[in-house]
Write a structure and sequence with these properties.
- By secondary structure, the protein is of the alpha/beta class.
- The protein is built from 18 helices and 10 strands.
- A 7-stranded mixed β-sheet has the order 1-3-4-5-2-6-10, with helices on both faces.
- A hairpin with a 5-residue loop joins β7 and β8.
- α1 packs antiparallel against α2 and α5 crosses α9.
- The chain is globular.
- The protein starts with a helix and ends with a strand.
Length: 437
C-alpha cells in the first residue's frame, strides 16, 4: 500500500514543477504541499535507508521551493479570494521568482535539474524482485563475480583496502532468453543497495542536449544514493559503434557522456556498480566495451541447469514427476534457452486444465473432490465439466497432477529459439574479449 504514497507524491511533485515553471504559484504551492504530505507518509513505512535518504533530500528541495513561493504570495501575491478579483490572481501568477545568488541562469538551471531528476525517479526499483541466487540455475562464475562486486563490499568493507577494489562495471552478454535480466533481478534482491533499472527510453529525449543531462543526473543520483547499482538493459541500443552511417549527433553525445561517467573522472565511484546486458556484444562501441572490466558470457543452460529450471518453474504445482523424469526433460531440451523452458512449462501448466475441460468422465474421492478420469476406471461417472457445474459442484472440481506425458506432448511441438549461428557469434566474442559465466 505505501508504494502508492510515493507514486502520488512523485506525481504531485511533477505537476508542481510544471505549474511553478509556468508562474502559476498558487497552484504550485498547493501541489508542493500535497507532494510533501505523501512523501512524509511514505517515510513512515519505507525500510530501505538509502531510499529514505533520497526521499528526504527531494522533500527538502521541494519544501525550500514551497517556502519561497509562500514568501512571494505573502508579499502582495496572496492566494486569491472571491473579493480579490482576477487582477490579484494575475499578480500572483506573474510575480517573478526570487533569484538565488547565482542569478537567473542558476535559477533556470536548478529548475531544469529538478525536472530531470523527477523524470529519473521512476527508474529506481523500490520493491525487491524476490529472485534469490538459488533461483538462478547454473552461471556459478557470474554469480560469484557479482557477489564479489555487490555483496562483499557492503557487508565486509574491510576486505577492500589498498589496491584491492571491487569490480565496478559488468557486461552480461549472450543469446536472448538466457537469464541476463533475471540475474540482474537476483542482484537487486540480494544487494543492500539502491537499484536503478534503466532502458534506452529512459535516457533518450527528443530535446537537444537533454539526453546527456539525463545520463549525468542518473550517475549523480546513484552517487547520492550509494551504495547503488545501475542496470542498463539492451545497452547496444544506446551504445552502438561510433562512426556508423546511421548514427545521430544525439547518439554520439549520449555515448560520450556515458564514457565520461563510467570513467568516473573527478568522482569517487567505488560504491556505484554499472551492470549492463546485451544480446549483440559486437554491436557495442569499442570504447564502451573497454569500460566494462568484467565481460561475462551467459550461455545456454547446461544439463543440470535445465533440470533445475524445470523444477523452479513448476514450483509447488501438483505433479508426479520423478528425478529421472526431470533428467529426461533436461536431455530432451538440449539447445533450449531459459526463456524457452519457461514458455514450455507455462504451456504444460495448462494441460491438466485442458484435460479437465474435455473430460467425459469424472471420479469422486472421499473428501468430495472430483477429478477427470476415463470410463475404464472403477467408480468413474459419465458427466462433463458443465454438468458438474450445473449441479453446483464447480468449487469441488480439481485438475489432475502434471505428468511426464504432458511435457512430452508440449515438447513435440516446441522448438528452441536460439540458432547455431547465434551461438557461434557469442562464442567467438568470448574467445576475443570475454569470459565464461
Amino acid at each position: 500500500m505505501y508504494c502508492n504514497f510515493l507514486e502520488h507524491g512523485a506525481e504531485y511533485a511533477r505537476q508542481a514543477v510544471k505549474e511553478d515553471d509556468a508562474g502559476n504559484y498558487v497552484k504550485a504551492f498547493q501541489l508542493y504541499m500535497n507532494a510533501l504530505e505523501y512523501f512524509h507518509t511514505h517515510l513512515k513505512y519505507e525500510k530501505n535507508p538509502q531510499v529514505k535518504k533520497t526521499i528526504r533530500q527531494k522533500s527538502l528541495g521541494y519544501l525550500t521551493r514551497a517556502e519561497e513561493i509562500r514568501a512571494i504570495l505573502d508579499n502582495g501575491g496572496s492566494v486569491p479570494t472571491s473579493n480579490g478579483g482576477p487582477a490579484l490572481a494575475a499578480e500572483a501568477k506573474t510575480k517573478p521568482k526570487p533569484k538565488p545568488k547565482g542569478g537567473e541562469g542558476k535559477d533556470k538551471e536548478d529548475s531544469e535539474q529538478a525536472k530531470l531528476m523527477a523524470g529519473l525517479d521512476s527508474v529506481i526499483i523500490r520493491e525487491k524482485p524476490n529472485v534469490k541466487w538459488n533461483d538462478v540455475a547454473g552461471l556459478e562464475s557470474a554469480k560469484q563475480a557479482l557477489q564479489e562486486a555487490v555483496i562483499l563490499p557492503v557487508k565486509f568493507p574491510q576486505f577492500f583496502t589498498g589496491k584491492r577494489k571491487p569490480w565496478r562495471a559488468f557486461l552480461l552478454y549472450g543469446p536472448p532468453g538466457t537469464g541476463k535480466s533475471y540475474l540482474a533481478k537476483a542482484v537487486a534482491t540480494e544487494a543492500d543497495s539502491t537499484f536503478f533499472s534503466v532502458s534506452s527510453s529512459d535516457l533518450v529525449s527528443k530535446w537537444m542536449g537533454e539526453s546527456e543531462k539525463l545520463v549525468s543526473n542518473l550517475f549523480r543520483l546513484a552517487r547520492d544514493s550509494a551504495p547503488s547499482i545501475i542496470f542498463i538493459d539492451e545497452i547496444d541500443s544506446l551504445c552502438g559503434q561510433r562512426g556508423e552511417g546511421n548514427e545521430s549527433e544525439a547518439s554520439r553525445r549520449i555515448k560520450t557522456e556515458l564514457l565520461v561517467q563510467m570513467q568516473g573522472i573527478g568522482n569517487d565511484d567505488h560504491q556505484v556498480l554499472v551492470l549492463a546486458a546485451t544480446n549483440t556484444p559486437y554491436a557495442l562501441d569499442q570504447a564502451i566495451r573497454r569500460r566494462f572490466d568484467k565481460r561475462i558470457y551467459i550461455p545456454l543452460p547446461d544439463l543440470k541447469a535445465r533440470q533445475h529450471m524445470f523444477k523452479v518453474h513448476l514450483g509447488d504445482t501438483p505433479h508426479n514427476l520423478t528425478e529421472s523424469d526431470f533428467e529426461h526433460l533436461a536431455r530432451r531440451t538440449e539447445g533450449f534457452s531459459g526463456s524457452d523452458i519457461s514458455v514450455c512449462v507455462k504451456d504444460v501448466l495448462f494441460e491438466p486444465v485442458r484435460k479437465t475441460r474435455d473430460a467425459k468422465y469424472f471420479m469422486k474421492i472421499s473428501d468430495g473432490t472430483w477429478f477427470p478420469g476415463d470410463r475404464t476406471q472403477k467408480g468413474a461417472v459419465k458427466i462433463t465439466l458443465e454438468g458438474l457445474d450445473g449441479k453446483g459442484l464447480a468449487s469441488k472440481i480439481l485438475p489432475p497432477p502434471i505428468t511426464r506425458a504432458d511435457f512430452d506432448k508440449v515438447l513435440a511441438r516446441q522448438k528452441p529459439t536460439v540458432s547455431k549461428d547465434d551461438l557461434e557469434v557469442h562464442e567467438r566474442f568470448t574467445k576475443e574479449f570475454g569470459e565464461e559465466g
